[in-house]
Design goal:
This protein is mainly alpha-helical. It contains nine helices and four strands, in the order H-E-E-H-H-H-H-H-H-E-E-H-H. The strands form two sheets. The protein has a two-stranded antiparallel ribbon. It is found in: Mitochondrion inner membrane.
Length: about 220
């Protein structure tokens, strides 16, 4: 039923005297008789790509190309080039559709469309391994990015600042304690200023970044109590 409606709408757009056409990016109605080509000035049609296939509408983005898409079910061109048999069938199509057999209706549909809605929307229409190409391409991009970063780090990027060295971490933590930085929830709130050590129950998470002989390591609650 969906495919028949699709073909019926496609026919009505072709032979309706009030044909909707695209002109200067504005939709308007035309009272003229429809012409075989669409739009009036088909300068955008690439005949090298589509051959002699008939242009029947604006399509998805105004480019004369074919593609089955649920959001844009009417391609700009027909799927097949009409030969003599199909041209005779086209003339018969202009009459009453009761005169068309079921096979003739299928031929008309397949001439305009490659697949039915059921065919290009069914589950498993594409191979299950199709995602492997995307995964492989992603891995290649990640690998190239890592090699590029390693190359930049080895030859172009400057060394890390002194604040990122173990001595720099020690100086930063010491300065934060001396300045009583954030005494509510920050570093100063974890320091016992009366006993000059870390408060009980606090295990500094940055011990691995400090020098091995740093005094701040010896002032942990476990060792300084």
């Amino acid at each position: 039923m969906t495919n028949l409606l699709r073909l019926s709408l496609h026919k009505s757009l072709l032979w309706n005297p009030r044909l909707v056409k695209w002109n200067n990016m504005v939709l308007r109605f035309s009272h003229d008789e429809p012409t075989p080509s669409y739009p009036r000035n088909p300068g955008w049609i690439n005949r090298h790509a589509i051959g002699n296939r008939e242009v029947v509408g604006h399509g998805r983005n105004g480019i004369a190309a074919y593609g089955d898409n649920v959001l844009c079910p009417f391609p700009a061109i027909r799927y097949k080039v009409f030969d003599s048999d199909l041209l005779l069938l086209r003339e018969k199509e202009k009459g009453h559709w009761n005169a068309l057999s079921k096979e003739e209706k299928k031929m008309l549909y397949r001439a305009s469309f490659r697949q039915t809605f059921a065919e290009f929307t069914r589950h498993g229409a594409y191979p299950d391994t199709e995602y492997l190409g995307s995964v492989g391409l992603s891995m290649v991009v990640i690998a190239v990015s890592l090699f590029y970063y390693a190359f930049l780090k080895a030859f172009f990027l400057p060394p890390l600042p002194t604040t990122m060295t173990p001595e720099g971490w020690e100086n930063t933590v010491t300065k934060m304690i001396q300045l009583q930085w954030n005494p509510i929830t920050g570093m100063a709130s974890k320091w016992d200023y009366e006993n000059d050590r870390w408060r009980p129950g606090f295990k500094p998470w940055f011990l691995d970044y400090l020098p091995k002989n740093s005094p701040l390591r010896e002032l942990t609650p476990e060792e300084g109590s």
